[in-house]
Design a protein that fits this description.
alpha+beta; Phosphorylase Kinase, domain 1; Phosphatidylinositol 3-kinase Catalytic Subunit, Chain A, Domain 5; 3 domains; 4-stranded antiparallel sheet; 29% helix; transferase; HipA_Ser/Thr_kinase; HipA_N1; kinase
Length: 421
């Protein structure tokens, strides 16, 4: 059973890792105090540290060692924020259980088994991973083929409109409560593989699922690793399905850490005092497979498509076959601000202009000729934009709206001969 305080708060959580033969307890996350935001400590289990197949939860913040890790200045050590819901998922939990006080302990314990990454949580070392329900309702089912897109979409619309009933909340609780980000989304098993389903939201300036699908396909054309994705119609609306890249085809989970966690950035803030170069350098120092060239390419691409929501939670790394590497690109869309959240490098303007961002290439250890080759490959890739707009049936009205922001994608700027700094 879960260890619950008299205030109804989770006092401790056993952290599980998923190995080839099943989940194994790897440590204990404990909480102290009665305030809404409590202090926490994590300690690896001696049994985990004694295993030959042990690994660290992340390459920087929770390295393998005896002794405890303090969560300060945050509620839990940073890597656990990557396993917790954010935005949309938290809103579903709080709507489903309005009388329950929620902190990170409760969000982690109540999150589903389809959370990002390879970690799971349970009440004891012998219990195995379990989902905690505040009002002790029977455990709700995980995503299945029986949860249709139509049902999930109707539930998401009801929540956004403030008209959700118990049926809507239960459906989204089992499919959405482990999801991060602010837009409505859910997990769904499609053709035997786990996918994230992304719905349109109230107030969208254009058909966001169609536009994100277009951006993902453009990224693929520009030489960027991209998850499998496609759109489907639900009535007269479009939803986007993206295959989860933190799961293998056999369901095996892959470790995940966000760029924010890697750089020890405040998980509650989306501003950034960091640059793409900071991220590339920290990844290299942390033993992650070199990704400077890939990040340089993604930075240029974000400028071309005006994806200025490139904050640290929208970049990540996965642990695959025991090694950390840059994850496929994700959460791509077109945004109004004309500044990247992450500047290219120190001294380089964050203006979302690919010709300006190009000037950062020496900081990445990339020669001008090599950088120019990357730039030209992206130009060829974004040249497929008109074809992809047709492929995803983007309306003329949306194309007119987007054309004002897609200036560089539709008319790539030429590089100056003196583009070096």
């Amino acid at each position: 059973m879960w260890q619950i305080s008299k205030e109804g708060r989770i006092d401790q959580i056993v952290v599980y890792a998923h190995l080839a033969h099943g989940p194994v307890p790897m440590g204990l996350l404990s909480f102290e105090g009665s305030r809404k935001t409590r202090q926490s400590r994590f300690r690896y289990a001696k049994s985990w540290l004694g295993r030959k197949d042990k690994f660290a939860i992340d390459p920087v913040n929770l390295t393998l060692k005896t002794g405890s890790f303090n969560g300060l200045p945050y509620e839990v050590p940073l890597p656990f924020y990557d396993s917790a819901p954010d935005g949309w998922g938290k809103s579903i939990m709080q709507a489903a259980f309005p009388s329950q006080p929620f902190g990170m302990g409760e969000f982690l314990a109540a999150g589903g088994e389809e959370r990002t990454g390879e970690l799971s949580f349970g009440p004891t070392p012998d219990s195995g991973p379990q989902r905690w329900l505040p009002d002790e309702r029977p455990l709700l089912a995980l995503p299945s083929e029986q949860d249709t897109l139509q049902e999930l979409f109707r539930a998401a619309e009801a929540v956004e409109a403030g008209q959700a009933n118990t049926h809507h909340l239960q459906r989204l609780f089992r499919n959405s409560a482990d999801q991060g980000g602010g837009r409505p989304k859910a997990n769904l098993v499609h053709d035997g593989l786990l996918h994230m389903v992304k719905f349109p939201a109230a107030g969208d300036r254009f058909d966001d699922p169609k536009v994100e699908a277009t951006c993902l396909s453009l990224a693929e054309a520009a030489g960027i690793e991209t998850p499998v994705h496609f759109t489907q119609q639900v009535g007269n609306r479009t939803v986007l399905l993206v295959r989860r890249f933190d799961r293998r085809g056999n369901g095996m989970r892959l470790g995940y850490t966000s760029a924010g966690t890697l750089l020890a950035a405040d998980p509650t803030q989306f501003y950034a005092a960091f640059t793409y170069m900071d991220l590339a350098r920290r990844a290299q120092l942390s033993g992650i497979q070199p990704c400077g060239h890939a990040l340089f390419r993604r930075m240029l691409f974000n400028c071309f498509i005006h994806n200025t929501d490139d904050h640290l939670r929208n970049h990540g790394f996965i642990r695959d076959d025991g090694k950390w590497r840059l994850s496929p690109i994700f959460d791509l869309s077109v945004h109004q601000p004309n500044r990247l959240v992450l500047a290219p490098a120190k001294g380089i303007s964050p203006e979302a202009n690919p010709a300006i961002a190009f000037q950062a290439h020496p900081h990445f250890g990339i020669s001008r000729d090599e950088a120019k080759h990357i730039y030209e490959e992206i130009v060829i890739g974004v040249g497929k934009l008109p074809k992809l707009l047709d492929q995803y049936d983007v309306t003329e009205r949306d194309r007119e709206t987007l054309a004002k922001l897609w200036v560089y994608a539709l008319n790539p700027p030429a590089l100056s001969r003196n583009a070096d700094i």
